[in-house]
Amino acid sequence: MKSLLRRVQSIRTVTLNARTCRLQSTSDESSPLKKLINEASTFGDVSNPEPELRWATEPYARLQAVQEAPTRVDPRETSVLLFPGQGSQFVGMGKKLLDLPAARDLYELASSVVGWDVRRVCTEGPEEELQRRCQVAVLVTSLAALERAREERPGAVERVRAAAGFSLGEIGALVFAGALPFEQALRLAELRAAAMQAAAATRAGGMLTVWLAADARLAEALTRAREHAAEKGVRGPVCAVANYLYPGCKVVAGDEAALTWLEANGRAWGVKRAARVRVAGAFHTPLMAAAEDAVREALRHIQVRRLLF
């Protein structure tokens, strides 16, 4: 594995430009979003891995032939993976994986691509750095955790017939399925995080998980929250459902003034409980529109390959 990692590193021709994480002004030519868009055009400049190097890009399905899905699936012999997204991170994550050589190697390879110590940030923090770099941290730890799954549930990973992801987790699912090379996925997550950070810096916002009563009037509450934000001077206020988690539980995102009002007053509209999501912006709302161009440009230069299952 170590020799394989060295070979992967030797054929790598492009690394993430560190400027994507050093966001400064937002004016005209020096706009961080403009820089991100320009730098995204290098995403195609990555060597195609040789067949024996596919561990780094297709870590679990590399020996599986592409097969037609069976007409009938026995749930006792089938696994489905759901990869987590931003907000699931915590200092110390990944510590229980470090006794697995393959997991350690994955952290090492990821660090060589992004240019910072992914393993240290995950396992030791500090908290502020983990929050800032959580997209790469969650992506790598999610893939590394599959090594533990292989050990504790023999055959479960090999029996996977579908993979999906929650927001950022979609990237992890695509790596697992062989559609995205691991290196490009890391760089995409790094750029995605920087673009979202730049968009969030222009306007205070956040996300709020809400648990609802059966007769909750959430739409009315969101309207009132937007009206409150407008009264506070927010132009074009945003406060909307960003994620549908399960019946009676949703994630709301928007302007900080609107979320603060909802936290304080939501009970009158049937909000039983509310908790902040540990993210730095109003993700999955129109407030992230400014981040779209950089991510779209990067995706345009990535060749998405055929799924392995």
Describe the overall structure.
This protein has 309 residues and is an alpha+beta fold. The chain has two domains: 203 residues, Malonyl-Coenzyme A Acyl Carrier Protein, domain 2 (3-Layer(aba) Sandwich), CATH 3.40.366; 78 residues, Malonyl-CoA ACP transacylase, ACP-binding (Alpha-Beta Plaits). The protein is 41% helix and 13% strand. It contains eleven helices and six strands. A four-stranded antiparallel sheet has the order 4-5-3-6. Helix 8 packs antiparallel against helix 11 and helix 9 crosses helix 10. The protein starts with a helix and ends in a 9-residue tail after the last helix.
Q: What is the secondary structure topology, with strand pairs?
A:
Blueprint: H1 2-11, H2 32-40, E1 79-83, H3 101-114, H4 118-124, H5 127-132, H6 134-152, E2 160-165, H7 169-176, H8 182-201, E3 205-212, H9 218-231, E4 239-246, E5 249-255, H10 256-265, E6 271-276, H11 292-300
Parallel strand pairs: 1-2
Antiparallel strand pairs: 3-5, 3-6, 4-5
Helix pairs in contact: 1-3, 2-8, 2-11, 3-6, 4-6, 6-7, 6-8, 8-11, 9-10
What tags apply to this protein structure?
309 residues, alpha+beta, Malonyl-Coenzyme A Acyl Carrier Protein, domain 2, Alpha-Beta Plaits, 2 domains, four-stranded antiparallel sheet, two-stranded parallel ribbon, 11 helices
